[in-house]
Structures are given as structure tokens and as C-alpha cells.
Amino acid sequence: MEYPGRHPKLVTEELFDKVQRVLESHSGSGVRHRKHHHYLKGTIWCDRCKQRFMVQRAKGRTGGVYFYFFCGGREDKVCEQPYIPVNAMEAAVEAHYGRVLRLSSAFRSAVRDAVDAAVATSSSLSDDMRAEFERRLTKLDKKEDYFLELAADEDWPKDKLRAKVQALRSELQKIRQQLDQAEAQLEAGREVFYTALSLLERPQDVYLAGSEEVRTVLNRAFFTRLCVDVEEDVPTVTSHELTEPFGVLWATYAHYEAAQAAELGETLERGSEKQTGVALGEHGACDLRVSLSEAVDRALLADGSSTSDMVGPERLELSLART
């Protein structure tokens, strides 16, 4: 049981939560910071052997000290990935932000409309769920009254009846909590998508201007991992795995671009000479709404079970506020 203490608060809840987010940004991802810390540790992986890159300190021939990344597979003698200077690895990730994390303004606008439509659809589903919950509440109330009437009979075992009544009341409380949380979960989902879209307006600029702390948060907000390989002595991010909701957004964006290209090709074939912009086609718009609606339903209406896989708005807001 948690309840407010009687002593005066030492710090505000806002400050406490902010400190926890900062501490979280320094931990996680299975990374140990006892030796050499770098904000890319835990994010970059070798594209050849799929092991983590680690940071090592070395002394130069003239006595200076420098740091470089090396693949963990080298220690196991299963990988020949060359050593990568820290500044070269940082430049590779910076370039990846500008090359990959780009969504057109038209698509971001379409996503906002689709999210609104998805939430509206989910709200109607929530009304159906609410009616079902109300029916269950009524049924449980009647069942509880029945058990209480039995309790008045001296022949019925009191311990068993007490356990049944307690179980009923626990179920009643759970249902009431689900009813209260349904609408809040939908709004939280809308906030997650909206915050993600705001961050995607200028991701590379935010990343380049951010401190190491901000870059740590951004990398973990966008990616579960970045795979790197060296070709002709130049490290390059060859692939990535996105967190949610960015994975949903990019999968939908690929379909969006395909729909645009198909519509543009059809327009050019018809000989149109006044092609100033291409709108999302009928099938593309429908599919966009459906995919995002399904994502919101899956993330928010599954009794909260999948929300832990989504990027919380507070994590994204932290990176925006720091810049």
C-alpha cells in the first residue's frame, strides 16, 4: 500500500521525476560504466558478428591518450571488424540521423489525422467495452448480495463465504479501475504519437545540438540498436532496429511513399503537366488509418500489457526540453 507521508516534501514531484529520467538515461541496455563511459555504449552493434561495440583507452606514440570502439567479437576471435576511433563512430551516427530519420511534413500531417481517427474509433470500442463492464458489475453485485444472504444462514461456512466475497470485491475494484483508465490510456497514446512526430521535425538538428545526456536519450528513444560496419576505413550505420512508435511510423511511411510513387506514375502516364504535389491515394489513406488504429488498439487497449514497449512521452519531452 502506498499513501502520502506526513512529513514535508523535500523536492517537488516534477523535480524527482526529472532526476529519475536522468539517472535512467545513464543506465540500462546492459551496459557497465565502471571503465570507460560513452553515450553510444549499448546502442551500437557490429553488423558482421552481431556483438556489441565496446570502448577502449589507448596511449598514442607521442604519449597522448585516445579512445576507440572495438567489436566484442574480436576478443572471442570470431570477428575481424577493425578498431574505430570514437570521433569516427560519432560522425557515423550523426550522419545516420540525417540520412534515415526523415519524414515529410505531408506524412506527419496525415499521421496526426490518422491518430485522431484511430483514437475516435478506439473510443467507440471503449464505449462497447464500458457497456460490457457495466453488465459484469451488475452481475457481480447481485452475486455479492447472494453470498451475503447466505452468510446470514448459520449452516454455511463463514470462512469460505468471506473468501468468495473478498474475491468478488477485488474483481469489482479491478473492473472499476479499467473503466477509469480506458480514456486516459487513449489520450496517452495520442500524446506519444504527437510527441514523436514533433521530435521528427528536425531530429538531426536536435541530435547535433544536444549534450551527451540528450544524445543518450535520443538514441534509446529511437533505436534498440544501430549496426555498424567499416568499408574502406569509413564506419557506416548499415541498419537499425527502431523502438515503438517509430517502428510503426516508418513501416507506414514506406507504404505512404509507395502510394505516392504509384499515384505520381499514374498521373505522369495520363500526361498531366501541372503536377505540383501528390496527395495520399484513397487506398493509402485507408491503409494508413487502419495500421495506426491497429497500433493504438494493440498498445493501449490490451489492458496495458504492451505499453511498456512504447516510448513514453516524458522520455521524448526530456530530449526536446534539453535543447
Provide a short characterization of the protein structure.
This protein is mainly α. The chain is built from ten helices and six strands; from the N terminus they run αβββαβαααααββααα. The chain has a domain of 76 residues.
Instruction: Give the class from helix and strand content and strand pairing.
Output: mainly alpha
The count of helical stretches stands at 10
In the predicted model, the low-confidence regions spanning at least 5 consecutive residues are 29-34, 273-286, 296-323
Radius of gyration: 27 Å
What is the H/E string?
HEEEHEHHHHHEEHHH
Major sheet characteristics:
3 strands, mixed
**What global shape is seen?**
extended
Identify the strand order in the major beta sheet. Answer: 1-5-6
Strand content: 5-15%
Provide mean pLDDT, rounded: 74
* Beta-strand segment tally: 6
Determine the fraction of residues in helical runs and give it as a percent range: 55-70%
Through-space gap between termini: 38 Å
